[in-house]
Design brief:
alpha/beta; Rossmann fold; 7-stranded parallel beta sheet; 9 helices; about 40% helix; globular
Length: about 240
């Protein structure tokens, strides 16, 4: 049994996910750096200090997810923290009314169904932790409160697949929080703010000026909550900030 706290971060070979993995490892956790690409994942894990271990993980592949969880169970025996960081945005330059069901489906495969696949696979290991925590990476672009204000930047951006997938993720967050409360597992949503990473490269909207370290503030805070910490809440970009559902 691993005596360190154990964390899994999906989509962690670059960007905010890599920074979350780096910061959690710096806090003394054993961090499983999940990535689809083996070469990139191993390189990222080798570059980070602390107990960082690459695990091949494609959130859209049930077999890949199952194998990753089996590896964590064999190595560490439990999971204390799951950060569902993997996400995509594919609709840059596509008007909302022109979005196809295929495009929507492709984005939901990662941003919604991938989260369900990973979370359901990890729950048995999280139940072995005395202080289980799940962090879902959300966005202000998924806030129905902000999207329903037609003068808001979130509404004007008209990112139909991304915004609707993050709204669905928010619903998953509060439903999981209620379902897992009796197990002592906290489930929360983190908003990193606008950080110029690969997900918004080429976007016709502002990519922001925040660093990956800035973007990691809220998810790392939620990943390190004490046993009496909140569940079913949205935090970010700062630890005292909250994006309305």
């Amino acid at each position: 049994m691993n005596t360190n706290e154990v964390a899994l971060v999906t989509g962690a070979n670059k960007g905010i996910g890599r920074e979350i993995a780096r910061q959690l490892a710096a806090l003394g956790m054993t961090v499983y750096l999940g990535a689809r690409d083996e070469a990139r994942g191993k390189t990222a894990a080798a570059e980070l200090e602390g107990d960082v271990r690459f695990v091949q993980l494609d959130v859209t592949d049930v077999g890949s997810v199952r194998a990753a969880v089996e590896t964590i169970e064999a190595d560490s025996g439990r999971l204390d923290v799951l950060v569902n960081n993997a996400g995509i945005a594919l609709e840059w330059g596509v008007d909302a009314v022109d979005v196809s069901a295929d495009l929507l489906r492709a984005e939901y495969e990662v941003n919604v169904f991938g989260v369900v696949t990973v979370t359901s696979a990890c729950v048995p290991l999280l139940r072995r932790s005395p202080n289980g925590r799940i962090v879902n990476m959300s966005s202000s672009l998924g806030s129905l409160t902000l999207l329903s204000d037609f003068e808001s930047s979130q509404s004007k951006n008209q990112l139909l697949p991304y915004s609707s997938s993050k709204a669905a993720l928010n619903a998953l967050t509060v439903l999981y929080a209620a379902a897992l409360k009796a197990d002592g597992i906290k489930v929360n949503a983190a908003t990193p703010g606008l950080v110029p990473t690969d997900i918004n490269e080429g976007a016709p909207i502002s990519r922001g000026t925040r660093t990956v370290a800035d973007g990691a503030v809220a998810p790392v805070y939620l990943a390190t909550l004490p046993p009496d910490g909140p569940t079913g809440v949205s935090r970010g970009p700062g630890v005292d900030d909250s994006i309305p559902w």
